[in-house]
Amino acid sequence: MKLKMTTLAFASLLLEANCLITPSNALEHQRVARQHDPESLPIYKNSSYCVDASGPNGTLDTGNVPARRNSTENMIGEKHMTHFNLVGDITDAKQVAEFVNLVQQRALDTRLGIPVTLSTDPQHHFTENIGTGFHGREIGPHSVTPVTKHFPGGGPMENGEDSHFPYGKDQTYPGNHFEYHLTPFRAAIAAGARQMMLYYSRPIGLFDNSTDYEPVGFSFNKQIVTDLLRNQLGFEGIVVTDWGLITDTVIRACILDAGRDQFGGEQRTELIVQLVEEGIVSEDRLDISTRRLLRERFLLGLFDNPFVDPEAATRVTRMKLLPLKHVGTGTKFYIEGLNATFLEARNLTVVERPEEADYGLLRINAPYEPRPGGFEAAYHAGSLEYSDEEKARQAAIYAAVPTIVDVILDRPAAIPEVFDAASAVLCSYGSGSEAFLDVIFGSSNPEGKLPFDLPRSQQAVEDAMEDVPYDTADPVFRFGHGLRYADKCSL
């Protein structure tokens, strides 16, 4: 079982659930009448074709005409998009907040002044109460309405692959733990979850509660969306697709027939207008979705004040790091993965070689195997261990100087050699270098805990079952581990 975290995604076009009642012969007619038109499809094979992203230093994206990537100005002012997620890696929370404010100001300048809803989405948070933590005791101006994902659980992927790609399309349950993977979604629904996203994958050999589930992708699977999520679990909110599911008319119709509300990653609203014009979807049903969208914005207070506090974002990131081992003092630093100006601003000295330093500071990515292609290359997959060459390179640093390591865990890592050799090890999940240094030098306390096991080897992960928790033998650290500072410490 390999767990992973993927890049950020966004969803744009909202449609009403259960709004399609189409005889099968009508669907077949649509299939014959409208052939696949490559020019009409969104482009998902290359990450440069993302519809929206922040520009440099939190500015608005100016777009890329040759790559057919729209500018933020165009998306809001001309295409009237009102819902985005941020595309790309977040390295500075304050800049993200500044970008959000620029987008909201542009939205206010449009004719209707409808505020944009923005969110960032690191998939699979693995933490308790994340939904209620976002929206609070009740939805209001202080809230974020998160999308709970990926129903009915995106963890038990065959061989740990990713269903964004054809080789990872199968979701399997060798331990018969399908019901276990529904547990967090039951809790989220009970806590008031308002939006739900399904994954790309399809269930293989899944039989549960007298239901033999079709091996059909979850977004097209009416047994999953309508029968299970809505009818059995009682979810009444917005159901969202992941990116890139719209192709021909029959595909769009199948998604709606399954019970989906929102098409993720799309900007071509005319494709849905076409369904209305051809009598497949009623205009009244689209009005229902509009009411849902506007109701959410009113509850969030976005019409009153859509802006956020950039400084608050910086304060929060300082709380996300957790120490796994402690260390003493030093004044000269060998560094990797962070800018020397951060230390120089603290009147500290940065040297070029480990042998010259009192301490080393390394911020390193969790291991992964690069894969080819534009879109696929953005995903971290493959072995959870470093290569022999990288292990040797790091070992030479640890032998030369006491080293403090921050492992950026966008996915679990099998790195017992780092814990054995480094003087201190922290783990982070997207916080910036300044937050890391604040914890190292004692001006902020670490408060995080591991959201998953850190396995001892890749083999231990491969020997485990995809759908069974805590099934990895002898992990270095278990879920929930994390040290605290007993007293303020400083270097």
TrEMBL record:
Pfam families: Glyco_hydro_3, Glyco_hydro_3_C
Catalyzed reaction equations: Hydrolysis of terminal, non-reducing beta-D-glucosyl residues with release of beta-D-glucose
Family that this chain belongs to: Belongs to the glycosyl hydrolase 3 family.
Single GO MF descriptor: beta-glucosidase activity
PANTHER family assigned: LYSOSOMAL BETA GLUCOSIDASE, PERIPLASMIC BETA-GLUCOSIDASE-RELATED
Domain called Glycoside hydrolase family 3 N-terminal: residue spans: 132-295
Annotated signal sequence range: 1-26
GO biological process, one term: glucan catabolic process
Cross-referenced SUPFAM superfamilies: (Trans)glycosidases, Beta-D-glucan exohydrolase, C-terminal domain
Highest taxon of the lineage: Eukaryota
Residue stretches making up the Glycoside hydrolase family 3 C-terminal domain: 344-485
Catalytic EC class: hydrolase
Magnesium is among the record's keywords: no
InterPro entries hit by this protein: Cellulose_Degrad_GH3, GH, Glyco_hydro_3_C, Glyco_hydro_3_C_sf, Glyco_hydro_3_N, Glyco_hydro_3_N_sf
E.C. number(s) listed in UniProt: 3.2.1.21
Name of the protein: beta-glucosidase
Keywords: Carbohydrate metabolism, Glycoprotein, Glycosidase, Hydrolase, Polysaccharide degradation, Signal
Keyword Disulfide bond among record annotations: no
